[in-house]
Amino acid sequence: MKRTWYYQATAAEGPFSQTEMEHLIANGIIDGFTNVRATTGGPWMPAKDTDAFHTAFSAAAFDALPCQRRRKHKLSLRVFLYVICFIVNLLVVILLLISVGQLANLAMLSLALLFFGRLAL
Q1: How many whole angstroms separate alpha carbon 54 and alpha carbon 46?
Q2: How would you class 50 by CB atoms within 10 Å of its CB: exposed for 0-12, middle for 13-18, buried for 19 or more?
Q3: Which of 10, 54, 56, 63 is positioned for an S-S bond with 22, CB 3.0–4.6 A?
């Protein structure tokens, strides 16, 4: 008889085959501290303490390390790009406000020349 497994999240989940449990471990749904139990009964125990999943956790830990490093790098790169975009947008807004201010000054100057130029005549 094939052994099936349950894991304990908020409630008991299962039954799962050995292969399905290894996929759950590889995808990070089950970690080493998740309680598991075979259908043959017995107590709940942390998955890392079972002989059945020892190799699955070794492979999952090996695969997870480079991904975590890459993910951390991508996050910092993403934050850097957001900061650069924010600074560029802020400079554009400042330049637009300055140019609007200069246009307003030119308009006021031309109106002043128009009115005061006629008054002087």
Answers
A1: 11
A2: middle
A3: 56
Rounded distance, CA 77 to CA 70, Å?
A: 10
Total domains, the chain: 1
Report, as an integer, the average pLDDT of 58-71.
Answer: 52
Q: How many residues does the chain have?
A: 121
Spatial CA neighbour of 9 closest among 42, 33, 27: 33
* Opening angle at CA 63, ends 39 and 44, nearest 5: 20
Give the side-chain half-sphere CA count within 13 A for 101.
6
How large is the angle between the packed helices 18-26 and 54-120, nearest 10 degrees?
A: 30
Quick one: 18 exposed, middle or buried, by C-beta within 10 A (0-12, 13-18, 19+)?
middle
Helix runs in the chain, H state only: 18-26, 54-120
Q: State if pTM tops 0.85.
A: no
| CA-based radius of gyration for the chain | 33
Q: Are 47 and 31 within 8 A, CB to CB?
A: yes
